[in-house]
UniProtKB/TrEMBL annotation:
Keywords: DNA-binding, Membrane, Transmembrane, Transmembrane helix. One of its GO terms (molecular function) is DNA binding. Residues 10-64 form the HTH cro/C1-type domain. CDD domains: HTH_XRE. The chain crosses the membrane at residues 91-110, 116-135. The lineage of its organism: Bacteria, Bacillati, Actinomycetota, Coriobacteriia, Eggerthellales. InterPro entries: Cro/C1-type_HTH, Lambda_DNA-bd_dom_sf. This is Helix-turn-helix transcriptional regulator. PANTHER family: HTH-TYPE TRANSCRIPTIONAL REGULATOR XRE, TRACRIPTIONAL REGULATORY PROTEIN-RELATED-RELATED.
C-alpha cells in the first residue's frame, strides 16, 4: 500500500470495508465532502483524527502515514524538473559564451570586426559565464 497516495489508500481501504464516503464521514464526525477531499488528495485529516481513521479503515496509523501525499510527489517531480531546467539553462549559457569567443576569434582573424564590437561580443560571453556562476552559487546555498 505504501506506493499509493494518502487519498488512494483511504479510498481503497474504505471500499474494501464496503463503506461509502458518507458512512466513513459519519463515523469520523466530518462531512462526506471532507472525505471526498481526502480521497482526491486535496486535503488530509487533522493529526488528532488519524488514530480514529486508521481504526475505521482497519490499519495502523503507521500504515496510513506510509502513504505518499500528493504534495510530496509534486515536490519530488518539481525538484527533478527544476534540476533539468537549470542544467539546460547552464548549457545554453555556456554555449553562448563559447560562440561569442569563437566568433570574435574568427572575425578577428578575418579582419572583419571592429575592436569595439569585439569587446561587446566578448562582454556577452563573460556575462553568460557570470550567470552560470550565479546558478552554481544558488545551488550551493540550497544545500
Amino acid at each position: 500500500m505504501a506506493q499509493l497516495s494518502f487519498g488512494e489508500m483511504v479510498r481503497t481501504l474504505r471500499s474494501e470495508k464496503g463503506m461509502t464516503q458518507l458512512d466513513l464521514a459519519r463515523k469520523m464526525g466530518v462531512t462526506d465532502k471532507a472525505v471526498s477531499k481526502w480521497e482526491r488528495d486535496l486535503s488530509i485529516p487533522d493529526v488528532g483524527s488519524l488514530p480514529k481513521l486508521a481504526e475505521e479503515l482497519g490499519v495502523s496509523v503507521d500504515d496510513l502515514l506510509q502513504a505518499k501525499t500528493a504534495s510530496q510527489e509534486a515536490a519530488v517531480e518539481s525538484g527533478a524538473a527544476r534540476k533539468k531546467a537549470t542544467a539546460l539553462i547552464e548549457l545554453v549559457l555556456k554555449a553562448v559564451a563559447l560562440a561569442m569567443g569563437v566568433g570574435v576569434a574568427a572575425l578577428t582573424i578575418m579582419d572583419e570586426v571592429e575592436p569595439r564590437n569585439a569587446l561587446c561580443l566578448l562582454g556577452v560571453g563573460v556575462a553568460c559565464l557570470a550567470l552560470v556562476q550565479l546558478i552554481h552559487e544558488g545551488d550551493r546555498e540550497e544545500r
